[in-house]
Specification:
two-stranded antiparallel sheet, five-stranded mixed β-sheet, single chain, about 160 residues, 7 strands, about 25% helix, Glutaredoxin
């Protein structure tokens, strides 16, 4: 199984095959609109604008599992991100990243970079960086800002 085997719903309800992203460097992030880390949307958008033409794609998966910090509908979340942060990268439908209802994509991501003791997502804005072959290269905690992973992204591009 690879990241390209998954199909996820985007914020508009359309099925998106992650195989559409073959050959791209991917940054997959679980987000929230009411979190102390929400300003990281600025850094994510800056990275996207800077590197999208070189093959970077950011995949945004809102999640309401941590402190009920993404309570809105997909449309409300998309609107909030556009108005407040100018987000132009792909936003997906809200998902769960832990527990019995977790999205299979996140089960797979955590199996690639997590380890037995550290597999659960701890909070909003956990980031997974994948290379052009779809391999998970790094997993970053919420506290690691997008700016701090720019060098690694450039290396993979």
């Amino acid at each position: 199984m690879t990241v390209y085997d998954f199909t996820m719903k985007d914020a508009g309800g359309q099925d998106i095959s992650l195989a559409d992203y073959k050959g791209k460097v991917l940054l997959i992030v679980n987000t929230a609109t009411g979190c102390g880390f929400t300003p990281q949307y600025n850094g994510l958008e800056d990275l996207y604008e800077k590197y999208k033409d070189q093959g970077l794609e950011i995949l945004d998966f809102p999640c309401n599992q941590f402190g009920n910090q993404a309570p809105g509908t997909d449309a409300q979340i998309t609107e909030f991100c556009a108005i407040n942060f100018g987000v132009s990268f792909r936003q997906f439908s809200k998902i769960e990243v832990n527990g019995p209802g977790e999205a299979p994509l996140y089960t797979w991501l955590k199996s690639q970079k997590g380890g037995v003791l550290n597999s659960n997502i701890k909070w909003n804005f956990t980031k997974f960086l994948l290379d052009r072959e779809g391999k998970v290269v790094e997993r970053y905690a919420s506290t690691v800002t997008p700016e701090r992973i720019e060098a690694k992204i450039k290396e993979l591009l």
